[in-house]
Amino acid sequence: MNYKFDIGIVGSGPAGYTAALHGRRRGLSVVLFEKSEIGGVCLNRGCIPTKAVLHSAELYEEIKSGDILGIKAPDVQIDFSKVMDRKNQVVTKLRKGLELSLKNSGVVTVNSEAKIKDKNTIEANGQIYICNQIIAATGSEPKSIKGMETDNDKVLNSDGILNLTTIPKSIAIIGSGAIGTEWARIFAAFGAEVTVIELADNLLPLADIEVSKRVERIFKAKKIRIYKSVRVEKIDRENTCKIKLSNGEIIESDKVLVAVGRSINNSEKVDGVEYIGDVCGEIMLAHYASKQAIEIVDGIKFDKTLVPSVVYGNPEIAWVGQREQDLEEGSYKKSTLLISAIGKSHCDNATDGFIKILSRDSKIIGAHIISKEAASLIQQIIIAMQNNITAEDLKEVCFAHPTYSEGIFEALFGL
Q1: Number of independent structural domains in the chain
Q2: Is the pLDDT of residue 266 over 90?
Q3: 8 and 119 share a domain?
């Protein structure tokens, strides 16, 4: 039997499930194929579980330093098994909610590996599905590097780290992108000895240089050991891991997290098929994938130069637009406001960080924020940038007090 649908979607991560739900809202018949768990990497092995663990780490760290807030808790302990249990509960609850949303919307879900035969044909479970449009959203997987192969025991990737049952006494993290930085913060908060090894000259190499420097300062304050501009040549795995660096040093740790990026899942491209999300090889972020899906299904375009980047933890890190190191001297204006200048930051005991705005001809061309609530603050600036709202226009907006948002208002006057 051949089944016919308006849209066939392979992969149920943020790109796939967003395309499916929006297709149904438009009254189209939709079939969604998923060989593993609904929700893809983001929900099951990425964004969501990591942030659940990170919240426990942040709360634990805050309670331990509660004396300054008048809260005495001298015997605070971490039950890591419960941390991981809660992480699993959050993932399960959200996945079941997503499965129910897909079902209630009328999406036909096929839990099977699917093969795209041509631009209108998908084969799965021995059945043929004829689709007017096919969308491939098959995602990515942790990148594997020769000499740093994972073994699900001592050397782990971003999937394996979520299956830990105990906090390691020491851990070396290879790579300081978003994944490496967030897990460095988690383990440092839980009391592990953390070492971060970065091949680039700066931590968080995709960020603005001043953000990178501040992250390094934050790491040092948390007693995280840092190696920059070095390459891992070999990992010997005995009782502990011995990591040989290109500078000749050897680092010893109980566990290693390899966080050196992601590789798109093998997918032989078929003409006429739309490839979105990580598999398209552009920006590997869940919100980028979702916007791609909406663009294809609803025709709502978005500015791909204004996709926010966020690194979670305490404090949050967020940026959008151009970096200062990429601009020609004298071609722009800059304003930097220290978060400590904002009253709310003192109330919250969260004074570390800054708001940095770059402009040209009164239009904001970049923003870089380290602050509590940075992930929300950056959206305010993106709305202004995308709608050509000038810095002078923003000065006419009334910002509430006391908030972190008023830091944006104050920074505008420094341009």
Answers
A1: 3
A2: no
A3: yes
Per the structure, the complete domain to which residue 241 belongs is given by 144-260
224 shares a domain with 284: no
Q: Which amino acid is at 58?
A: E
Tokens (6 digits) for 180? 């490496």
Classify residue 139 by its DSSP letter. Answer: -
- Supply the mean pLDDT for the chain: 96
Summarize pLDDT for 13-45 with one digit per residue, the tens.
Answer: 999 999 999 999 999 999 999 999 999 999 999
Same domain, 115 and 231: no
Residues 99 and 148 in one domain: no
Same domain for 382 and 292? no
Q: How far apart are CA 69 and CA 149, in angstroms?
A: 45
Residue 216's Cα: distance from chain center in Å? Answer: 19
Assign residue 337 a region: left if phi > 0, alpha if psi is -120 to 50, beta otherwise?
A: beta
242-266: buried (b, 16+ CB within 10 Å) or exposed (e) per residue? bbbeeeeeebebbbbbbbbebebee
Helix runs in 247-327, H state only: 286-298
Residues catalogued as catalytic: 401
Look up tokens 């449009």; give the residue: 133
Contact 207, 355 (CB under 8 A): no
Do residues 273 and 134 touch, judged by C-beta distance below 8 A?
Answer: yes
The tens digit of pLDDT for each residue in 329-376 reads 999 999 999 999 999 999 999 999 999 999 999 999 999 999 999 999
- Would you say residue 310 lies in a domain? no
pLDDT in tens, 138-149: 999 999 898 899
Whether 308 maps to a domain, the answer reads: no
User: What pLDDT, in 10s, does the model give residues 224-242?
Assistant: 999 999 999 999 998 899 9
Residue 304 lies inside a defined structural domain of this protein? no
Query: Is 305 among the domain residues?
Result: no
